[in-house]
């Protein structure tokens, strides 16, 4: 994997090879770190790089930290500034993915959250597709359950919680599927391993509410707004039953890495007509324009790297 030449670590930008933590670091030993996943997109015509919704990503990072008793060393604006500085250092001219992490930085043994030093770091990688079959993904319903808010908060990006996502993803891939739908402990469809889900039923766009053990996705929020404002669709946030996905007209998954992935089969049953539907197709094209700062109505979501 190709990485950035520089990283942000312990308050400064330095060569990636010097950004290292010790093997006894709390965040590494116990999964006590929280992270973000953000993208910046290259706009070829303008010859410029644009961060997509960095304020919202850093707000979620700070909120994930709050759930884990962390004191963020920066506010949203401070994070955006240091991100711009880091991106300028390596002068990126392609689509990239950024991984900011807040972590319990003290070294030693002892499971707890309090009285530990919090640190922040970030690196960058060039990035294109996360799900290869993003126009015709085949999903299975995972035998794993989604972590519950009373176990590890699913609404925050807590590193330890991603053991759950890793189990889900590996079993789905090894069984020959592209991704999985994960049920929560109430048996409702929550999300995928690292993406939110939407279905179209009777012409309505339906997605689980933030109280059904999902990550509060920023792509999810963007798609809800685009669907309402640009496609005039009604969007309903409600619990989704397992068998509803078999009779949906369309289904897709959303995430920063995944972007918008069309789901055309679930456990060998076709979704709708078994090919990517009209609403999914339109949203994918709208979303691609919006993230590349090509749609003036949504330019407030793009921050130019300069
Ligand atoms: N759910 C999970 C579990 C995720 O890890 C992600 C990726 N961050 C998402 C949903 C999608 O969230 P977002 O659109 O903010 O990337």
Helix share of residues? 10-25%
CATH superfamily of the largest domain: D-amino Acid Aminotransferase, subunit A, domain 2
State the separation between the terminal residues, measured CA to CA. Answer: 26 Å
Class of the largest domain in CATH? Alpha Beta
* Overall geometric form: globular
Instruction: Tell me the CATH architecture of the largest domain.
Output: Alpha-Beta Barrel
Number of helices: 6
Regions with pLDDT < 50 over 5+ consecutive residues?
none
Most strands sheet: 9 strands, mixed
SSE sequence, one letter per element: EEHEEEHHEEEHEEEEHEEEEHE
Q: Give the number of DSSP strands.
A: 17
Average the pLDDT over all residues and give the rounded result.
97
- Portion in beta strands: 25-35%
Structural class: alpha+beta
**Overall number of structural domains:** 2
SSE layout and pairing:
Blueprint lengths: L5 E4 L2 E4 L10 H5 L2 E3 L2 E6 L4 E5 L1 H14 L8 H15 L5 E9 L13 E9 L10 E9 L16 H13 L4 E5 L5 E3 L4 E6 L2 E4 L10 H14 L3 E3 L12 E6 L3 E8 L2 E2 L7 H14 L10 E3 L2
Account of the 3D structure:
- The protein has 306 residues and is of the alpha+beta class.
- It folds into two domains: 6-126, D-amino Acid Aminotransferase, Chain A, domain 1 (2-Layer Sandwich), CATH 3.30.470; 137-291, Alpha-Beta Barrel (D-amino Acid Aminotransferase, Chain A, domain 2), CATH 3.20.10.10.
- The chain has helices at 26-30, 54-67, 76-90, 162-174, 218-231, 278-291; strands spanning 6-9, 12-15, 33-35, 38-43, 48-52, 96-104, 118-126, 137-145, 179-183, 189-191, 196-201, 204-207, 235-237, 250-255, 259-266, 269-270, 302-304.
- Strand 9 and strand 10 (189-191) form a beta hairpin.
- Helix 2 (54-67) crosses helix 3 (76-90) and helix 5 (218-231) packs across helix 6 (278-291).
- The relative contact order is 0.15.
- The structure holds 4'-deoxy-4'-aminopyridoxal-5'-phosphate.
